[in-house]
Amino acid sequence: MLEITTPRCFLRPMGESDFSAVGRYLQDAEVMHAWGHTLSDAEVRAWIARQQERYDTAGYGALAVTLRSTGELIGQCGLTMQECLGVSPLEDDGASPEPVAAGASSSERPGLGVRDLYVSEVGYMLARAYWGQGYAVEAAYACLRMGFTSLALPEIFACIKVGNTASCAVARRLGMRRCGFFYKHYRGEDMPHELYGLRAGDLLPRADLEKGYAVTWRC
User: Fold this and answer.
1) In the chain, is it the N or the C terminus that has fewer CB atoms within a 10 Å radius of its CB?
2) What is the Cα–Cα distance from 138 to 144, expressed in whole angstroms?
C-alpha cells in the first residue's frame, strides 16, 4: 500500500471506515459543483471500492489526505489513469501543443488534429473547510513528485472542467500548463474540459514542500 508524507499531511489508502469522512465532501454540493451532482451513500461506497481496486491493480490511486497533527481526513489526492477522447491541441504560454508524452497511450484521428489519450492524471479534492490553505498544492506536489520519481512517469496531466477556476489555479501553481481541450461524456452530458500537463523535468522545486516528504510502499 502506498503512503506519502508531506509537511502537514499524510496520504494513505482510503477504506470502508472512511465512509463518513469521504461522504462529507462527496455529498457537499459546493465541493461537487464541477461534477454537477453529489453522490448517494451507495455511490460513496462504490467510490471508495473503486480506489481500493486501483490500489490492488496499479498499486496507487486516489489517497485519503489526513492531517498529521490530528489524523482528520480532509479530502483526497492521488494519481489515476484517465481516458480523454478527442483532445484538441491547445497552446498556452509557450507550452507544447502536443499533450502526449513518451509512454502515454494515444491514437490520432487523421485529418482532424485531435487525439484520444489515456494518461496519468493527478486529481485533488478537499472538504470545503480546508480550501484556500495550500493543502491541495501540498498534496498534489507530493503526488507529482512520487509519480515522476517512484513511478518514473514522463508526464502527468490534470483534467479540469472549464470554469473550475480553483482547480486551474492549483494546476498553475504546480507549474502545469494548458495543452489540450476535450469533452468528457458524463451522465448523458458533454462537459468541456481543459487538459493541463507537466513534464518530469519541469516540476517546480519547492523546498517548503519537501520538508518531511517521504514515500512508503507497504505490502
Assistant:
1) C
2) 10
